[in-house]
Amino acid sequence: AAYFGSLLVDHAPHETPTVLRSSHTNQTTTQPPNYSRDQSLAIYESASGQGLNLLLTLEILQEQWGITNVTLYGNDYLPESVHVARTILQQEQENSTRTVDPPQLQSDHEPWYQIGALCQGDSTNLSHVPSNSMDIAYTGFIDPLVDPLQLWGPHVSMAQVEGAMRQLCTSLDDLHQDLLQQMQQQQQDWFASWVSELLRIVKPGHSIIVEDVGWPACWEDHVDGDNWGGVLPSWWSDAKTWETYGWTHLIEPESVAIEEQAWYPDRYNVRLQKQDPNDTTPANIRAQHQKVANQRAHDLYEAIDLEMFYETGDPKEGSVDAAGEQHVE
């Protein structure tokens, strides 16, 4: 369970919310966040898979800080995954109703979390989710476009794409370099479509999180072609990015926080806060609050012991056979 993130939610008065996802371990020196147990919390995971990330997030909130008034929402592209997620969460809900400790957090007949809508859906089009409705919206991973320019046909394997990327990255041909630029633009547009929907559905003044962000193709140490389809950390705060995708009046300027430690050692996590148009706090004061919140989040993140993850490796990576099919060990 080491790679599933914890959510630290700080709704201290007169301060911007701090939302952090970090490694799930049983050893932490951090104090519980200033969060009222009576306050309901709506969590949305885009591309929630089989619901295990949501489930372990719930366990952290309950075990570490006694936060139980939570409602879960999410979507996944595969209806089979949605069915499994709903089944797992319902089973755990039934079990936890009888076993929650301490018992005073709830009555004997009241589950400590609620299951909202878990839907089959496209993460770039969450039109079924009302705007400004979620306290936290996140995704554990944005799948890159395998063939963004549709150069290799619908049945191309990941291994074949990685091999082609290695060749393009080492090529000095102008056409190849132009293709790489076009591919990267498509990947950035793809990322932006996910992020725009997360920003739309989260409440003003609250945060979105994107985990395990990869690097662009051919970027410095990643020219081997194995890590591609991502965006640079600077992309998230670039004024051109915000203007291109209509984020200038959506994201709090000083809220962008990059955490270099992620599930994959060569990737990073990012957090953004949505602007609150009703917040009359002067911009310079808001900026100071954001810096304090970002530093506090970073300190909390650093306090979590990540050594277990790096010692055990990546059980998700598995192996890829000659046909390009992935097998999880």
Task: Describe the fold and architecture.
With 329 residues, the protein is α/β, with parallel strands linked by helices. 33% of the residues lie in helices and 19% in strands. It is built from seven helices and eleven strands. The strands form three sheets. The protein has a seven-stranded mixed sheet. Strands 1-2 form a two-stranded antiparallel sheet. Strands 10-11 form a two-stranded antiparallel sheet. It is globular and about 65 Å long.
Low-confidence stretches: 1-34, 305-312, 314-329
Beginning-to-end CA distance, first to last residue:
16 Å
Net shape? globular
As laid out across the biggest beta sheet, the strand order is 5-4-3-6-7-9-8
Give helix % range: 25-40%
Number of extended strands: 11
Fraction of residues in β-strands? 15-25%
Tell me, rounded to a whole number, the average pLDDT.
77
Question: What is the radius of gyration computed over CA atoms, rounded to a whole number of angstroms?
Answer: 20 Å
Protein structure class: alpha/beta
Q: How many helices does DSSP assign?
A: 7
